[in-house]
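Ticket opened by: R.M.
Priority: normal
Category: complex prediction / small molecule

The reporter submitted a protein together with biotin and asked that the result be attached to this ticket for the collaborator who will pick it up next week. Submitted input follows.
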Amino acid sequence: MDSTVKDKESLLARLLEAGGEPLSGQAIADEAGVSRTAVWKWIKELEEEGYRIRSVRKKGYVLEGVPDILTPELIRKELGGDEFVGRILHFDSVESTMPIAHREAQEGAADGTVIIAEEQTSGKGRLARPWTSAAGKGIWMSVILTPDIPPHKAPQFTLIAAVSVCRAIRETAGVEARIKWPNDLLAGGRKVTGILTELQADPDRVKAIIIGIGINVNQDPGDFPESLQPIATSLKIQSGQKVDRAKLAAGVLRRLGECSRLYLEKGFPPIKKMWEEDAITIGRRVKAVTVRETLTGTAVGITEEGVLELRLDDGTIRGIYSADIELQD
Ligand code: BTN
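Result attached by the on-call engineer:
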């Protein structure tokens, strides 16, 4: 990744690329076609944003520390040259990243566009439930995907997202997360991630799939509202250490790109296999609370459509399309 310096953002990208080596203020000014004072102002602005930059006499500027924020530059540095991720739009505070992603998709955003926020003041969960998204504590992002598939296959992308996040969490934070059908990730028996998939589609073709991913990363127990404390957890609580959010966001996006590609090349079977390896639900006795009824049985697998198959006590198999699942054993 070689960037020409032309503004504060590209200067930051160059400082990150330099990996601790000094960058000459004069060389930057010449490259950008601006004065040294303009470069100095960009440096001051970056310092105000929390970057620690040392000025070494006769050598230039050295980046010594980065703030805990999810800027596109930091995520891209962690991603290397991953081709899947397109534009990354980063916000300090939004109501929810979902409507922003919908708007971007309607305006023709490309596959792999990412909307990410430090804080959501009105985060959305499944079944219109609220999603608590405290500032700087988690990863709250929506990813726009534009696969050429019919709408009935779109739920498979919830499973693709669950597998991607589950594996990225294991790789980056070392936490053994497991998937609870359809889209919750649990760690230590509590919810650490929620995934919300929404669709823009014509009758026969998907226009865009918006995958909303909420990961509880660096909360302490007291950071959750009291009602959530018995059921929610964070990666920090589970691992005992603070997790680098930019690394984790990059890990999730890299995995999402890989799994989407795998799916588009080989179809659903390899994803189903990965999902079943990561799932906590399969083989367990579960209670499924649907809008119409409550069923108890053993979860035996998922279908091509991502439907959960439940073997009831009388031996019949029932497909569960949408439900809250409680593990019974
Ligand atoms: C759930 O488990 O109910 C799904 C939670 C999904 C939360 C994410 S956070 C990013 C995106 N923006 C939202 O408002 N919701 C999703």
